[in-house]
Every structure is written in C-alpha cells, then in structure tokens.
Amino acid sequence: IIAVASRAAHLPGMVASATPLPVIGVPVPLARLDGMDSLLSIVQMPAGVPVATVSIGGARNAGLLAVRILGASDPALQQRMSAFQAGLEQMVLEKDEALRRKLLGE
User: Fold this and answer.
1) pLDDT at 69
2) What would the pLDDT profile of 43-75 be if each residue is shown by its tens digit?
3) Separation of alpha carbons 92 and 19, rounded Å
4) Less Cβ crowding at N or C end of the chain, within 10 Å?
5) At residue 13, what are phi and psi to the nearest 5 degrees?
6) Which of 61, 64, 55 is nearest to 27 (CA)?
7) What's the predicted TM-score (pTM) here?
8) How far apart are CA 60 and CA 64, in angstroms?
9) How far is CA 62 from each of CA 1, 4, 39, 51, rounded to the nearest angstrom?
10) Spatial CA neighbour of 64 closest among 88, 95, 41
11) Any long-range contacts for 78-81 (C-beta under 8 Å, 24+ apart)?
C-alpha cells in the first residue's frame, strides 16, 4: 500500500495500524516547510506500526519499492525490475560518456 500524505501526515500510520500489509509513506512538499513536517511525521511511527518511507515527493521510488517487495515472491516481476535497473545503469553510462565528450573532448 502506498500512502501519500502532507502536513501532519496521519494517513500512512493509520493505514499501517489497520493492515498487516506493507505500507510505504510518501511525504508531499507544500509551501511551508517543503514537506519536512510530512517526512518527520511519517518516519516517527510508534513501535508496532512500521511504515517504509521514501523521500519528499518520492512517489516514483515508492512504486519501485513496492515492485521490489512484490518481486520477492514473483520471479517474473523480479526479472522485470532487474531489466529496469539495467536500463538505468545504461542511461547513466550514456550521460557520463556525453558529459566526458563535452568537457574533455573524448
């Protein structure tokens, strides 16, 4: 379960207290405090109410974490995640090469 919350960010903790399923909290940035209030609210859950927390505005990473959790028992999903990660690695290598060419003339 991915729970997105802002300000006092009660939603992830409330959901986690009501289900045995994993809960991933996503703090949302607002005009004041840039989401720090949400982040601190989500990570400070009491014992027995675990909530995995990603970065402020980190909905993409929340989705990827959920896929990894599900992939622990689904080899096909795990394989797709591995392919996704390989694609990210390739993208970084291509950007590195382009930057080196631009800066160093390589």
Assistant:
1) 97
2) 999 999 999 999 999 999 999 999 999 999 999
3) 38
4) C
5) -65, -40
6) 55
7) 0.86
8) 6
9) 9, 10, 14, 12
10) 88
11) none
